[in-house]
Specification:
Blueprint: E1 8-14, H1 19-32, E2 36-42, H2 51-60, E3 63-67
Parallel strand pairs: 1-2, 1-3
């Protein structure tokens, strides 16, 4: 929880086996950017796509970024 005002809400959606890197990125973003709050979600699989989760993250955050292997 930031000590000052929240200036942006960012969601990182981890797909596949990138959860550890996604959590590390979230911690780094929050450390370097005061006021930015990061939510991490673990989609694990793309098929079937959890559209409810993706839509919720998109609605509740200013930015939605996917982190994936792309293999």
């Amino acid at each position: 929880v930031p000590s000052g005002p929240v200036v942006a809400k960012v969601a990182l959606l981890s797909v596949g086996t990138r959860l550890a890197e996604t959590l590390e990125a979230a911690n780094e973003i929050e450390a370097r950017m005061p006021g930015v709050v990061v939510t991490v979600a673990d989609a694990r699989f793309v098929k079937p796509l959890d559209t409810e989760l993706v839509n919720k993250l998109a609605r509740e955050n200013d930015v939605l970024i996917t982190v994936e292997e792309n293999s």
